[in-house]
Specification:
Oligomer: heterodimer
Strand order of the largest sheet of chain B: 10-9-8-7-11-12-15
Shape of chain B: globular
CATH architecture of the largest domain in chain B: 3-Layer(aba) Sandwich
Radius of gyration of chain A: 22 Å
Structural class of chain B: alpha/beta
Distance between the termini of chain A: 45 Å
Strand content of chain B: 25-35%
Number of domains of chain B: 2
Largest sheet of chain B: 7 strands, mixed
Number of strands of chain B: 15
Chain lengths: ~375, ~270
């Protein structure tokens, strides 16, 4: 376990900015949003001092300067999915395949939380494994370094503890930062993370047991908070079991009546990966080329599963809502041995119909 | 790394009008696309879109691919306007195909409806190339009217000439016309008085959802076990590679885990026949 002072970490970021695009959460309005850092921050500007600021979140203009990075608090409003699985991209050009394929920019993500990392594990299963690998995701993944950090102020909608996660990362990062009084306790999670530390060895020192205890005390408190606020939803059995035993209950219908089919839940979801392919003409008229474009799609849209002949296996809202839940907690678990929900609660915050996943599953299970 | 979304360019060599709304396109892909019978491919109409089809030709024929396509949606209507020498794109093959090894030494009952004969033609051609491997083939096919029968030459002239000890054909139409001298009735009626060793056979079914539903129920009534019934599921297979989610049926990606499933695997899933 290592330790680095805020000032030294800022200097490290400045160094890394020369060769990487770096994104980190910054405050805009009530939420944290991903901001691309710029290197214009005057040298010597100190970062936040002291322990973390609790919710309500401070209002702070997002200038992209290092001084505006919010390391702890809570996951950003947006997930890190768009960095790896772009909302829209051309995946094929034909009849002549483009050969000058650009290598993605080397990217560092600062401050993803444990729930964000879990989402990467889910996406990895889809795009990196199996017979057909997705070259676009893989290129982005290979070019992205993940420096995660601990949560300090989970929102009411956070429920990572219900899906066997904690508000601090245990795996899936290159480096993890845990904020303590005068710097970060830094944990190494990969050889790439190890390499980063070796390159700036002078900035790091061994974390003392006192520092690690300071980290662990905060972690314990935050985990207890998440568990406490989700006590009422804890059914004492797995969501998979609830889904399997209550597939046909009427509560699916009554819950789905609140759905306006906007698919905000899918868009903000860090693990939802379904997409649509479409074809269009590309380039100048003389070249007469075409391209296949991939955009995010959503199983909550009425015609998502409809075939050209008109048949649609999920005609009703209730069937679509149920499918999304079953996919996350049952099908994905059966296919890949992990649950495809991170408990980040973004869907709860985004839903205009106030559908709360935890509540739905409680009602279904009753 | 291979880009799974990139289609191989293919030239249309021939367009065969099968019925008023079904055409067969004979394609010559720029590079050979080997496949196992029952696997499907994504056909791209440039700039319009793509849709999944199972080749209706035998995998033994390497340099050409036949696709029999009903005019049903955006992509297929564009395809129906295509002419010889036009170019399309092909991606694949995808899915598992028919498990031929499981069929060896057994009787095979094939039940097809309408354009569902397309994958079954590839399957049947594959079986008769090595007919000694199978006990016997009973091939039942139904179309709405005589003019809706696809592969008329094969179904009505060529295949009836095959060795009757090995291949029994049963043909029906839902509604006959003046020229029709054959059987009239739904395809399920061809399963009456079946001369098949049910315990020692497999049933392979492909057709519109409603036809597959009632055929399956009839086969169960006749004594077939769900694990002996092989069904081609028609779902919205878009990426073909088990990612985009459109074709999900329960935990299965029809494109990756199917499109052929034995009935026992899917019978308890929601909306199997929709």
């Amino acid at each position: 376990m290592h330790f680095i002072k805020f000032k030294d970490f800022n200097n490290l970021l400045r160094k890394l900015l020369k060769e990487n695009a770096i994104y980190a959460p910054g405050q805009t309005g009530e939420n944290l949003y991903w901001q691309k850092l710029n290197s214009n921050t005057p040298k010597g500007t100190s970062t936040q001092k002291g322990t973390s600021t609790p919710i309500p979140l401070r209002a702070q203009a997002g200038t992209g300067g290092l001084e505006n990075i919010v390391y702890d608090q809570i996951r950003a409003a947006g997930s890190i999915k768009p960095f790896l699985f772009h909302p829209k991209e051309t995946v094929a050009s034909y009849p002549t395949a483009k050969t000058n394929k650009e290598t993605p920019e080397k990217t560092i993500l600062i401050g993803p939380k444990a729930c964000d990392l879990k989402a990467l594990e889910v996406l990895d299963n889809i795009f990196q494994k199996g017979d057909f690998k997705d070259p676009f995701y893989i290129a982005n993944r290979e070019n992205t370094t993940v420096i995660s950090s601990d949560c300090s102020s989970p929102a009411d909608s956070c429920f990572c503890s219900l899906v066997d996660l904690s508000p601090y990362p245990k795996t899936g990062f290159d480096l993890n930062l845990s904020r303590i009084a005068d710097g970060f306790v830094v944990e190494v999670g990969s050889s790439r993370g190890q390499e980063l530390i070796r390159e700036s060895e002078a900035s790091f020192r061994e974390a003392s047991s006192h520092m690690v205890k300071e980290r662990d005390d905060v972690r314990g408190e935050v985990l207890a908070q998440v568990k406490k606020q989700n006590e009422e939803y804890d059914a004492g059995k797995s969501y998979q079991e609830i889904l399997k035993k209550n597939f046909e209950v009427d509560a699916w219908r009554t819950e789905a009546e609140k759905c306006v089919e906007c698919a905000a839940c899918v868009q903000v979801c860090p693990t939802c990966y379904c997409f649509l392919l479409y074809d269009q003409a590309s380039g100048a008229e003389q070249t007469a080329g075409y391209e296949k474009v991939r955009v995010w799609d959503a199983c909550q849209y009425p015609k998502f599963s409809q075939v050209a002949g008109g048949a649609n296996p999920r005609k009703r809202r209730a069937e679509r809502l149920r499918h999304r839940y079953a996919h996350k907690f049952d099908y994905f678990l059966e296919n890949f041995d992990i649950v495809a929900c991170t408990g980040c609660g973004r869907c709860i915050q985004a839903c205009p119909g106030k559908i709360d996943m935890r509540e739905v599953l409680s009602k279904i299970g009753k | 790394m291979k880009n799974p979304y990139l289609p191989v360019s293919a030239e249309i060599l021939e367009v065969i009008e099968e019925t008023p709304n079904i055409k067969t396109f004979v394609l010559k892909p720029k590079e050979e696309i080997p496949f196992r019978t029952g696997q499907f491919m994504e056909l791209t109409v440039p700039g319009i879109g793509e849709a999944p089809f199972t080749p209706s030709s035998s995998p033994q024929v390497k340099e050409k691919l036949d696709f029999t396509v009903m005019n049903a949606g955006k992509v297929t209507s564009a395809l129906h306007k295509a002419k010889p020498s036009d170019k399309v794109g092909v991606r694949g093959p995808y899915g598992a195909g028919y498990p031929l090894d499981e069929f060896k030494g057994r009787e095979v009952l094939i039940v097809g409806g309408g354009v569902g004969l397309a994958p079954l033609r590839s399957f049947f051609l594959t079986l008769i190339e090595d007919i000694k491997l199978y006990q016997k083939i009973t091939f039942c096919y139904g179309a709405r009217t005589p003019s809706d029968i696809v592969y008329k030459n094969l179904v009505m002239k060529e295949w009836p000439k095959l060795d009757k000890k090995k291949v029994a054909l049963r043909l029906t139409v839902d509604a006959g016309d003046k020229t029709w001298k054959g059987k009239v009735g739904l395809v399920t009626t061809t399963l009456d008085n079946l001369k098949v060793d049910i315990g020692g056979s497999v049933a392979v079914v492909c057709g519109p959802p409603i036809m597959m539903k009632f055929t399956t129920f009839k086969l169960i009534d006749l004594g077939y076990k769900p694990e002996q019934i092989y069904l081609s599921m028609e779902k919205n297979m878009s990426c073909g590679i088990g990612k985009c989610g459109h074709c999900m049926m329960g935990k299965y990606y029809v494109c990756k885990d199917g499109p052929v499933f034995t009935y026992d695997k899917i019978k308890d899933l929601p909306a199997v026949w929709d």
